[in-house]
């Protein structure tokens, strides 16, 4: 049986408390309280954690709240009164502290403990307060920072200049799960993965946005996970239909990586595309918005989606044409309409650039290279194979599987399937 999220959080908070990580424990108890406000144990535990942090007023307030929830539970009342007594004494309310200890004894508490507490000076407790980092520290040379945005919660912003092909981020997923469209099937594996996290990792997970209702862990995972899993830093990179960065999974290092697609100035937000290739560059704004609502439960307000009037019509027209060109590349008769394949590839790449979309040109270059190799136009095949390879290196890294495969054909276009099938035609069109 799967434990409720609040109980999972409480158990991790208890681990932090026992380890002396009172700041983390307090924050986790707060999350548990938000999920189950009627459970007195969570607020009682937070009161104790606040006492260890010498947050006297907060501890007293927690004890007040606990007493409202524990009227028929003498043992819980005892704990609340005892903890409030210490908070009141630390705040200089000796009379209130004495009354709380008397009430503690009246409800079955031990007189010896009450007498010892009356003599105890809470001001001798050392403040154990410490800063908790909810966003893992980035490599100082990475050149980005996470901060609040105007419309999209938190986002990642460049702190130095990036150029196309520069590596921005390498991050291993916190955890990854098989994709499932059935939320009932997701609760068990997500909860099991969460229980394996450390308390600070759980606290970092809970700092992420959830766009859905229901089980908080499942909803955070649905909102923030990428195909390779959930990454705490990468999840802060917001979406744009005109992305300046691209994420991909690098299998050898088991890491998600993000590369710059364009030149990026310091202060500029770093955005990736949550949709893949033709689902973004080949879709109109209306089509994209439907996908965002269905898959991510948000509406996109990026520069492309914020266009109006003639500019929006032109953008939609470019994207419709780009999708049609790509769909048609393999439908042309390779012998009778040879030149159209290369011309359409050139046109498709130029449309992407006119749109300001600087990814996925290799979708067109790959077909152009293979087609030129089919017609024994080795000079053109070499040009397009190198174009394809350079694009993949910039967007995925030279050591990525996509780039390694592309290099095989860049080095020798004759390795394309069906290469050398025809001869006699040349295709000089270039981007």
UniProtKB/TrEMBL annotation:
SUPFAM superfamilies: SET domain, TPR-like. It holds the Pfam family SET. It comes from Mycena metata. Residues 121-275 form the SET domain. This is SET domain-containing protein.
